[in-house]
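Worked example 4.2. Below are the chains of a multi-component assembly; read each line carefully before continuing.
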Amino acid sequence: MSAPAEPTLPAPYRIVGRRQDSADVFTWTVEPLGEHAPTFLPGQFNMLYAYGIGEVPVSISSAAAGEPLLHTIRAVGSVTRPMAALPVGTVIGLRGPYGTAWPLADAEGGDLVIVAGGLGLAPLRPAILGALARRAQFGRLCVLYGTRGPADVLFADQLAVWRARGNVELRVTVDRATPDWTGEVGVVTRLIARAGFDPARTTAFVCGPEIMMRFAGEALLRRGVPAPRIHLSLERNMKCAVGYCGHCQLGPHFICRDGPVLAWPRLAGLLDVAEL
Amino acid sequence: MTLRELVENQRFCQGLSGGQCEGLAACASERRFTAGEYLLRQHTVADTFYLVLEGEVQIKLSLPGQGTVTLETIGPDEAVGWSWFAPPYRCQFDALAVAPTRTLAFDAGLLRALMERDPAVGYAVLKALVATLSERVQSCRLQVLDVYAPPTTQR
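Applying the procedure described above to all two chains together yields the following structure tokens:
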């Protein structure tokens, strides 16, 4: 999706596929009805408009090339819950892509550590696929994923494929284990100390609940990853998505325009503020 | 690698001097566990403190009527057990090796005696232990927060 001429005008897209990823998370495959060519960078988001219901920002979860356009959505509010009930074939409005991207090219030549929490794996998926597509350009590639429980693990089939590749250190942990869970248990930040990477030459991409990202960032700093090489993807109340309305303001940043991906130094102090 | 070298290489012992590590090594032996073997059992005497060299250990708790719940996974370069440090010296949880696991096993009685005898060693070990406990408590708090629960304010 190259930037549309009219940035606030949705283009019609059809839902051509729907996959239930967990009890409250689903993934849509969408296709443009017109000539709205789908090109984007990993980490960017689109505004999805369910006609008559409302519009929400949703990260793009597909590969930047070679996959249909995917959006992974959590049915959690007044817009996303009705969205979950829309059948395949429904036409929705889509505008975008918006925002900053994961600096994948800057990470080349060193180790790449991906830290995902819960639904945060979705916007990181394009970055992981991008890194895997150019695997030789990176040193160690660590994917550290934490979620609530075994039933909440997203993209389980994909995780199995990544694990089978052998050139990715994939660690999956859950906060609350069930008796049949054989993987790791504990918060995702604990995995940062265990993963095999060279901190001084590492770039880290982090996405998940804000409190998890704060602790993950601090754990990466403690491990020795340089602050400018730690990138977080923030979520705020994006409305216009083009930096006009200010609903998504975080300190000096409009997250829709200056983010969602921001380097740690630009967020110094902002993640500690109770209401911002 | 000698026991002293193994001790010195542990993150837990980073703040200790060479001599202090030598003292700790005198309390330690290398111990291996197969998958399915317990390092610690709840309600038993906490007579050993472990540093994991290789492998994976699960901290578990039996809940009456609900089976056993895994609370946390411990990996290489991490500590297992702190009930050995304070009375009544009873393990509160199970520690189960879920993969072939190699450890440095410290005799708790010898270690406590060393810490009493040499307060500098005692303080150094206590600082390392508190750092470990702090990390675990912080993780535990994040777990309790249930940060992945559905937010109430989203569209």
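Take a moment to check your reading of the output against the notes. Helices of chain B lie at 3-8, 18-25, 108-117, 119-145. Chain B touches chain A at residues 11, 56, 58, 67-73, 75-78, 98, 135, 138-139, 142-143, 145-151, 153-155 (CB under 8 Å).
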